[in-house]
Amino acid sequence: MNPEEALREIITECGYRERLLHTERIPGRSARYGELTVELEPSVKSLLQAQGIDRLYSHQAEAIDAVLRGCNVAVVTGTASGKTLCYLIPIVQALARRASSRALLIYPTKALAQDQLRKLSDFGAGRSFTAATYDGDTPQSVRRQVKKQAQVVLTNPDMLHVGILPYHHTWAEFFRSLEYVVIDEMHTYRGVFGSHTANVIRRLRRIAAHYGADPRFICCSATVGSPLRLAGELTGLEFHLVDEDGSPSGERLLGWWNPPLLDEATGQRASANVDAAQLLSQLAMRGVRSIAFTLSRNTAELILRHARNLLADRGLEDKVMAYRAGYLPEQRRAIERRLFDGDLLAVTSTTALELGVDIGGLDAVIMVGYPGSIAGFRQQMGRAGREGQTALAILIGLSGGLHQYLMQHPQFLLQADAEQAALDPRNEFILGAHLLCAAYELPIAQADSGLFGPATGELLEILAEEGFLSLRQGMWYWTQPDIYPAGQISIRSVAGKHYDIVDLTQDTLLGTVDADAAFRTVYPGAVYLHGGETYRVEQLDLEQRRADVVAAEVDYYTVPMSVSQVHVRETTEQFQAGDLTVRYGPVDISTRVIGYRKIRTRDHRELGVEELALPTREFDTYGLWLSSLEAMRVCADGGHDLLGSLHALEHILIGLLPLFAMCDPRDAGGASEMAHPDTGAPTVFIYDAYPGGVGITRTVYMRLGELLTAAAETIAGCPCEIGCPACVQSSSCGSDNSPLDKAGAVALARSWAQMVQMT
For a 10 Å CB count at each end of the chain, is N or C smaller? Predict the structure, then answer.
């Protein structure tokens, strides 16, 4: 049965017709081909012929031509559009002409690098050229061989940062002959991780130059806003953009699925997890191969368990599996093989399978909640599609305001421009850390300021005052031979320091969490998930930087509540929109986790609130703030509570941030006051939740009118009376969602949106 027929049958037989709010048919497209202007080497032509490739898609031909002309190239096309050939052909062309050539391929995950190695093997790796992965799983006995013999090395930013660049002298031959650097899945490099990776790439360029190499960069990405800006931020280089996709695409049927409302007062809906399991199992019963993408590991496991129960009567429970981080590499490879071979009918997954791991042809995709970005949505949707039939993609709405906005505005996902990936390589906390790493690798010259940015000189002087560097004959030298800086700096967090998470039951180290996140994730009483197991935090030792946990079977999860105060340091940008003043600049934040909520996993109902006494955390970051004296009149005329209106608007603005910047609502914080001392007026603040900022609020500052309009539409479209989790309530609110004035927030959002749009 084809996916479309299966869906019609399911909604009829199961009584789900009212759940399917909207469908949209996305037509397929035919392939467009292009010709190369550069003659390929005979051996390269033979490799292509062996793969059955007798012509190239237009975007492949354009990208390859540009690379072979000497350009840095950014390729931004859809899922399964053949981006791999855009960098693989130039690489094998270089190897055919000079066997000593080298290429470095950087992927965001180890799994993706392993998958790409298999693809390279199909394309001649091991016969025509040598390729190998170099990551944390590479045995020590193999590493020396990879350094000396591999012509193409596949790695990830973490290993490049901690295991390659600091040991560049052992890679001298490789760096001396480095011709190409590939950065795949470019859109994933955002926020803290992207800001760190941008500095790792600058260190890579510096090491390559030291050995006399000037490699060309090829960046590949799914749909992303301002790709040239992103490629430039990541590398510090200029790029030629290729974004006209010439690959064929089958027809897709996209559906918006909203679980029924259970409680209009609270906005609570039926479980999206149960609906997802029902859909997954019903599709499997009809032979439709499907994948359900979830927002968390726990959700993937819950849906798997429920789907298996539903399939047990048919003897199909072994035909559905979960796939996520936390599984052993060999387990993940086995699941990938079963998917690729068609042995599995269904899989539940986190975003681990969103990226380009090859799992063969699937018929349907179920997205349990919006994945957080247009790029992620389109990439997940693109996972389904087999030649000759319509692919099915269903987005299931969760109860939150972001998800309900998309349920009520289906055209947004089809018409909206892709968000920009927000990152800031100039974040002084991050840049300072990488200057330490760079000095350890090679003395830093004054000219390196052109590579790392204008703040380099000042930061170097600060690091010298702290005793890490010394200036001799115009060069900055590392002065701490007993310290290995890269080993102390995680590129997945801003703070270098971390907390150990220790399982008291087994007396084993489960993992670590960076200091910035510790108060939000491993506070006393928190439910902590690791490797599919549930733990409860017994103690957070601030002096030893250690969280003690014990295994626990609980039916709830926990959400921290925090309160924040904001002090404006400086206004660097601003604009006036009627009475509304919008400013952007550095701010000082004082934030404290004051307690947590227990939320029942099954139906997301609140079970209770527990208080905490944790110290205040202070940090510098960047934010935007909206101030308006007119807000007092707007609220007074409508009989609205002023603080409640500002507070409610703050919540919905943060909740909708992922529609306009690639981020999670937890990546930002907020505050609201009737008369803030730095503005003298009613003010709403939104700020980056990371020290130094990572560019999130800067991105939103440029799209504020759209954000305010979406906020007004979301609140006004919610059927609740006084505010609920689907519109203006926030589970992380430190003041227990009080006061909130839903109607006042609508009035302010509409008034301010109109002012901004008229500017």
Answer: C
Instruction: State pLDDT tens for residues 82-104.
Output: 999 999 999 999 999 999 999 99
Dump pLDDT digits (tens) for 652-661: 999 999 888 8
* pLDDT tens sequence across 243-276: 999 999 889 999 999 999 887 777 778 899 999 9
Check whether 589 has a pLDDT greater than 90: yes
Burial (CB count within 10 angstroms: exposed 0-12, middle 13-18, buried 19+), residue 18: exposed
SS3 759: coil
Instruction: Give the helix ranges, DSSP H, for 29-139.
Output: 42-50, 58-68, 83-97, 110-122
Q: Cβ atoms within 10 A of the Cβ of 727, count?
A: 28
At 246 the three-state DSSP class reads coil
Which amino acid type is present at position 247? S
What does the alpha-carbon distance between residue 240 and residue 36 come to, in Å, rounded to a whole number? 16
Give the pLDDT band of residue 344 (cuts 50, 70, 90).
Answer: confident
pLDDT the model gives residue 220: 96
**In this structure, are residues 504 and 548 in contact, taking their beta carbons and an 8 Å threshold?**
yes
Per-residue confidence band for 326, with pLDDT thresholds at 50, 70 and 90: low
User: What is the total residue count of the chain?
Assistant: 759
- For residues 111 and 98, give the distance between their C-alpha atoms in angstroms, rounded to a whole number: 30
The confidence score (pLDDT) of residue 756 equals 94
Q: Are 134 and 116 in contact (CB under 8 A)?
A: no
d(CA 123, CA 325) in angstroms, rounded, equals: 28
Mean pLDDT, residues 480-484 taken together: 92
Q: Is the peptide bond before 739 cis (omega within 30 degrees of 0)?
A: yes
The CATH superfamily of 33-242 is P-loop containing nucleotide triphosphate hydrolases (3.40.50.300)
Identify which of 705, 700, 704 has the alpha carbon closest to the alpha carbon of residue 663: 700
CATH code of 428-488, in short, is 1.10.10
Bridge-partner residues for 153, per DSSP?
A: 104, 132
For CA atoms 738, 741, 746, 748, give the dihedral sign.
Answer: negative
The CATH number of domain 3-25+250-415 is 3.40.50.300 = yes
**Cα 217 from Cα 106, distance rounded (Å):** 11
- Global pTM? 0.84
> DSSP letter at 417?
P
Structure tokens at 510: 């489960």
CB-based contacts of 620, cutoff 8 Å, min separation 6: 569, 586, 587, 588, 589, 691, 692
| 342 pLDDT higher than 90 | no
Residues whose CB falls within 8 Å of the CB of residue 131, separated by 6 or more in sequence, listed in order = 117, 120, 121, 125, 150, 151, 152, 153, 154
214, two tokens: 């000037």
Residue percentage of the chain with pLDDT more than 70: 96
d(CA 568, CA 588): 6
Cα–Cα distance measured from residue 678 to residue 587, given in angstroms and rounded to the nearest whole number: 11
What is the rounded average pLDDT for all residues in the chain?
Answer: 90
Measured CA to CA, the distance from residue 272 to residue 260 in angstroms comes to 9
Backbone CA torsion sign across 209, 211, 214, 216: negative
Query: Could you tell me where the DSSP H helices lie in 456-554?
Result: 456-465, 515-521
Greatest Cα pair distance in the chain: 80
Pairing relationship of beta strands 290-293 and 683-688 according to DSSP bridges: unpaired
Is the predicted pLDDT of residue 73 greater than 70, yes or no? Answer: yes
Rounded distance between C-alpha atoms, residue 748 and residue 711, angstroms: 10
Q: Which of 117, 104, 113 is nearest to 151 (CA)?
A: 104
Q: How far apart are the first and last CA of the chain?
A: 54
**Confidence check: pLDDT of 323 > 80:** no
Residue 218, pLDDT score: 99
Q: How confident is the model at residue 416 (pLDDT cuts 50, 70, 90)?
A: confident
CA dist., res. 692 & res. 620, Å (int): 6
Closest Cα to residue 235, out of 192, 193, 181?
181
314 CB-contact burial (10 Å; exposed 0-12 / middle 13-18 / buried 19+): exposed
